[in-house]
Design goal:
Strand content: 5-15%
Order of helices and strands: HHEEHHHHHEEHH
Helix content: 55-70%
Structural class: mainly alpha
Number of strands: 4
Largest sheet: 2 strands, antiparallel
Oligomer: single chain
Strand order of the largest sheet: 1-2
């Protein structure tokens, strides 16, 4: 019979268990990053010269609004494809690491990287603070992995003219809104969310 007290009395066993846990965590994050990088680069077209996106942010590379040093992309900025590729890999590795620390339940040994990658893909889009406060993370940590995946569809909002008196808030899952604003970003965000849900559910075991 396993004795928890004896387990902690043996420093070597504790150390080896901690080491194995860390290796498993690193392996999961690495697998999730390898999974999500090509997916993210496929989702976001590569643009080297900074442009204003549909909500008014200057953007470059693979949908990135920040530079390597943390400063915001601005008008006139131009990147190289090599810079964008490396920036994308580093950004998504960091996001997978951050998201993995927030998920408190064990993930499937075979396909858990798909769930982690989908969560990181979502968090990379909406920002880590929004992900931390999301029903996606709450449901996942409550043990409802599939419910957490499906909750991604709730995050369907686009904002136009942000911060101005003419600001417009659009819920893209609304068929009327999708018909009206489809080509202005709604089609893209709903395609993105549907793929995130599908890939997340593959790892929700």
């Amino acid at each position: 019979m396993f004795n928890l007290g004896n387990f902690f009395k043996n420093p070597k066993v504790v150390q080896n268990t901690i080491k194995a846990t860390r290796v498993a965590a690193v392996t999961l994050v690495s697998a999730a990053t390898l999974y999500v990088v090509p997916w993210s680069q496929e989702s976001e077209r590569l643009v080297l010269a900074a442009y204003k996106d549909s909500v008014g942010y200057y953007t470059w590379c693979y949908g990135d609004i920040y530079k390597e040093d943390g400063s915001r992309v601005k008008a006139g900025d131009v990147a190289t494809s090599e810079y964008c590729d490396e920036r994308s890999k580093k950004r998504l590795l960091k996001m997978n690491e951050d998201v993995a620390k927030l998920i408190k339940v064990d993930l499937d040994a075979t396909d858990g990287h798909k769930l982690l990658g989908a969560h990181a893909h979502f968090a990379d889009n909406v920002g880590l603070p929004t992900y931390k406060a999301s029903s996606i993370l709450r449901l996942t940590n409550a043990g409802d992995l599939q419910g957490g995946c499906r909750a991604v569809l709730r995050y369907d909002v686009l904002r136009f003219n942000r911060g101005t008196p003419n600001e417009v808030v659009v819920h893209c899952s609304n068929p009327a809104m999708q018909a009206r604003y489809g080509k202005q970003g709604c089609n893209g965000i709903m395609n993105r969310r549907n793929k995130e849900v599908a890939r997340c559910l593959e790892g929700a075991k």
